[in-house]
Write a structure and sequence with these properties.
Layout: E1 4-6, E2 23-27, H1 32-40, E3 44-45, E4 54-56, E5 61-64, H2 73-81, E6 85-88, H3 92-101, H4 114-125, E7 129-136, E8 139-149, E9 152-160, H5 165-179, E10 184-188, H6 192-195, E11 200-202, H7 204-215
Parallel strand pairs: 1-2, 9-10
Antiparallel strand pairs: 2-4, 3-4, 5-10, 5-11, 6-7, 7-8, 8-9
Helix pairs in contact: 3-4
Length: 219
Amino acid sequence: MPVYRLTRKLVFPPPELAEDDGLLAVGGDLSVDRLVLAYAMGIFPWYSDGQPILWWSPDPRLVLIPAELKLSKTLKQTIRKGVFRVTINEAFEDVIRNCATIHRKGEQGTWITEDMIQAYILLHQAGYAHSVESWDGDELAGGLFGVMLGKAFFGESMFAKKSDASKVAFAVYVTELARKGFELIDCQVSTEHLKRFGAREIPRKEFMERLAEALQSPE
């Protein structure tokens, strides 16, 4: 299937027209309206410096149902001991910049370019993008950020400067989302790290059905 080239018109092709690797479209912009439309359609941007904006909708899709969260005994103990203080939306820009610069084994560079950082800061200011922080005293020890629409949360990236800091932030936040009745956490592509939390792959068709239901629920 062809990869669609986007124009200034605020529109995306149907996700089911994506390539086998999930690539759906190229071009467009990172405006708040386009990003919100993309997430509502199960599409997300992912590209590197020097590339045009690439838009993806992979099949299968890795998701975590909040009520299915799994925590190790060690992580439960770390949370109970209060090793880290967890907050929400207290340091969004610090979190996303740490996610952009943290070194990950087997990866070179980052998809969180300066343009992406600025786009998600605007998305945060518009009330759609959120951060979760783990603090060790006054030091930001880890965290994550993502996008929220309806009763769906789209996880984008996490970082840790201290062991278990991002895991604690993730576990505490997912537990809170489950309490609030959230139906879906989009983890995008498969990783063993997230599978240990209970995430699982589902067909894109099922993901789109679950997403549609989650978007009908008020936040």
